[in-house]
């Protein structure tokens, strides 16, 4: 049995220099004094332990340091502005879908006069998986109820029973994936226990061809965090290729009076899929899973840089972006970066998304890093090109190592007033002294069957603060410290979080990747 036991930097507190006084301010931005420059040279800030090899530069707050100008709709209101709809694609619709939904309408029915209908053009259409499409509709106009159907402009009404407004589904099986001789089903609304595994005997798994037509039933093997692992029914185990596209769901017993129970079937849009990876192809050494929303501007720099460090494959889980990130990703993929995008529109399902990604990556990757688009690995003491890949692949043959950990440093706005034109790796040069949390690279094969790892070491890191006004995470360590919830930029914001002048990453990028920086060459000087 493989255990997660290995850390490169096991203790966050060893040998950390004492926090030092704030750097000197010159004309509103920070410059290192001669003494500090000398200090940085003799004390590379990341050499914490003798075995320190891996260092994660953590830029989590960097992409949002300009709240006043870059105010984004709060995540909640953003989510409630769209209605996600999943439907099975009749081939007749493909042309509509290829044209990104032009010609498709969401049809709403008047609450008071049953006959009156209103059609509104869809916001976007996405591929949900090989078999299903995701359509985004605007909220219904006043006095109209939520989407009742989709219509091809003209006359064809899409009569599809799975056309349902997903936002209103509290209970839903939304994804299912084959994993060896089990099926993993992702379900919303079956458990309120965040960190604990549930008793799998409470659940049964069902497979079939429609919401009312589940012909096969099997045992639930584990259940945790709304992820249920099911035994495969014998007939599917013998012919796994036939399971592709079969609908899956779970049922549970609802206690009633007199010791009776009622069986509740969770509604499902989840269809079984499996990894298409050729078994004979050698695995990638290192892949990355990420979950993002509207980061089209930053993703090229992030992927280019980490590919140079040795990342070979990217799984991008896209949470309803509408900034054209799809075309950026397609372009990167065409350029040979091996990037794929997966639509992941579900609310509060980030850990589930990473579990899903881990299963997908298992057949293709020896190691998977789970990270955000504003986080960068950086090695002060290793040659850069391919360094991360060499480092992780050095541990592939030690089966007792299931996780590699690094510590992270947060960079502040570094005196900037607007997002740096030369990319974040070059623009951000000032950070906090103390490392804050850790990041993990895991061996997906070593994940335990409940996929509960996230509860243990990912959960806190997982909530990304897309909006500094979002008070939901108030008090959490994932929030930039010192942020209020008032919609004004704190006066000293751009000078915050600046304790150490650290140009290590910038120097590496300028020396090695200058010509691939997203926004042209670095022109010198500091953007203030
Ligand atoms: C996607 O974004 C919405 C709106 O911000 C949020 O409520 C939801 O939890 C996000 N989903 C994931 C998986 O992060
Ligand atoms: C909604 O319906 C009510 C009751 O029929 C009506 O008074 C109101 O004007 C309607 N609002 C709109 C925007 O149509
Ligand atoms: C119309 O009906 C839907 C549910 O069918 C409800 O959610 C909505 O609030 C109603 N709208 C109005 C204006 O009554
Ligand atoms: C993309 O994947 C292929 C194999 O599937 C590999 O040969 C190639 O090096 C990868 N590209 C990058 C940039 O790592
Ligand atoms: C990987 O292992 C080789 C051989 O043991 C060693 O020379 C090299 O320094 C290691 N590289 C890293 C990045 O740990």
TrEMBL record:
Protein's recorded name: Glycosyltransferase family 92 protein
Keywords: Glycosyltransferase, Membrane, Transferase, Transmembrane, Transmembrane helix
Domain of life according to the entry: Eukaryota
Entry similarity comment: Belongs to the glycosyltransferase 92 family.
Enzyme type, top EC level: transferase
GO cellular component terms listed in the entry, alphabetical order: cytoplasm; membrane
Coiled-coil zones: none
Predominant place of localization: membrane
Assigned EC number: 2.4.1.-
Topological type in the membrane: Single-pass membrane protein
Residues annotated as transmembrane: 47-66
Organism expressing this protein natively: Lactuca saligna (Willowleaf lettuce)
The keyword Transmembrane helix belongs to this UniProt entry's keyword annotation: yes
Keyword Flavoprotein applies: no
Subcellular location: Membrane
InterPro entries assigned to the protein according to its UniProt record, in alphabetical order: Glyco_transf_92
Gene Ontology molecular function terms on file: glycosyltransferase activity
